[in-house]
Amino acid sequence: MQNIYLVGIKGVGMTALATYLKECGNNVWGSDIQDKFPTDEVLHEQHIKVLKGFSPKNITNNIDLVVTTGAHGGLTNIEVLTAQEKGVKVMTLAEEVGQLMDGYETKITICGSHGKTTTTSLISFILRQLRLSSSHLVGTSKFSGYYGGSFGGSDYLVVEGDEYVSSLGTDSTPRFMYQSPDYIICTNIDFDHPDVYKDINAVKKVFVDFFKKLKKNPKGRLIYCIDDVALRRLAEVLPEEKRMSYGFSEDADLVLHFMHTEEFQRAVFSARLHGEHLGVFKLPFLGHHNVQNAGSAIALSILLSLDLTKVKSAIALFKGLSRRLELIYKKNNIYLFDDYAHHPREIRALLEAVREKFPRSRRILVFQPHTYTRTKMLLNDFVHALGDADKSYVIDIFASAREKTDGKITSKDLEVKANQMHIKTISYVSDKKIMSELAKELKRGDVVITAGAGDVYKLHEGIISVMNKS
């Protein structure tokens, strides 16, 4: 047993690591800011102590290892510097995950610009349902009855791989480059994280570098979505025998065919492997992107020689994860959902899934942009995506813990750009006025969706009050 201290313990990745390490038999605690986080409930349930704020006094002599988040200064955080002065071993989250991975028989990383958390959760769930000796580290608080991090055996480890840098300003290594998986699943590639990547080509390069790690691994295989044009081309960096494609395209090794929705709640689809029909699958939520995510899990199951009948049953039982089109409340025939979507592509996929589920309802989106750099660089794309809703309210930008405003971009700019593009359904509303606007707008039959990677979920109590009065 080790005494392990986590700096920035409330982040979803750090909380997942905390619960995993505790289930491995370690003594785990850490520190973070006092703000309310979605992970607070998990840390409380697991009796993991969280110290308020960062202080040199928190680094006591009994600590064996300090693991730091990339936020709150990362490797320059005062607690990290204190630990180094005391000679305590310090690792970033990315380094620790990579080291843990080396202890497993079969190592699986899910990466991609969008959908990696859902896909990682689904694959982790399938392995657990099949009662295999498996563990996982997923960037979410909970999913389908499991914590985001959990130890359940040492045969398989499923982890989420992130292309963002390990510690901004001090370690520019993409986080997934610390991992050496046997299987890489890549869902798609898109331009994101403009604070560290100047364009899509820079993003592509780090993914290619990651894929190349499979070349020296005799077991190494890349499973990729062939529907993504950029990814289709980049996958060719590996020889054909080291890759397997999935998707709706007839060119895929595993061809998916969306059949229909069932009771506006489940996506029903079929799969073919090199012409061989594998049967019909039912996924308990909607969206073509989620069918693609499920396709990657089926492809991996085939390569792992898992029982597809059991895999099919497991997929049907998967309940998703928090903040992914999560139903929060229903009253007066008005629904409130919450989602983590914070990129234009994710917003479009979210609104498409809501349309499938509620084809006759108005979709009222309350969107909180995440980071100034992303909002600025993808401004036009955001406007086009937000325009897909019947009405979009944009509240103030949520800055990440690693950036400060430069005063050159605000949420109001989204409304201004929308007007210039003759899109009249997008309005900027301050956080203080959003409830009064919703009170005037909402009517029975509407579907309200809060979306963003910040703390937009804190609006739920007020929105529920508005719904109750509608």
TrEMBL record:
One of its GO terms (molecular function) is UDP-N-acetylmuramate-L-alanine ligase activity. The keyword Nucleotidyltransferase does not apply. The keyword Kinase does not apply. It comes from the Bacteria. Residues 4-104 form the Mur ligase N-terminal catalytic domain. It catalyses: UDP-N-acetyl-alpha-D-muramate + L-alanine + ATP = UDP-N-acetyl-alpha-D-muramoyl-L-alanine + ADP + phosphate + H(+). InterPro entries: Mur-like_cat_sf (IPR036565), Mur_ligase_C (IPR004101), Mur_ligase_C_dom_sf (IPR036615), Mur_ligase_cen (IPR013221), Mur_ligase_N (IPR000713), MurCDEF_pg_biosynth (IPR050061), UDP-N-AcMur_Ala_ligase_MurC (IPR005758). It is found in: Cytoplasm. Residues 110-300 form the Mur ligase central domain. One of its GO terms (biological process) is cell wall organization. Pathway: Cell wall biogenesis; peptidoglycan biosynthesis. This is UDP-N-acetylmuramate--L-alanine ligase. It comes from Candidatus Roizmanbacteria bacterium RIFCSPHIGHO2_02_FULL_37_24.
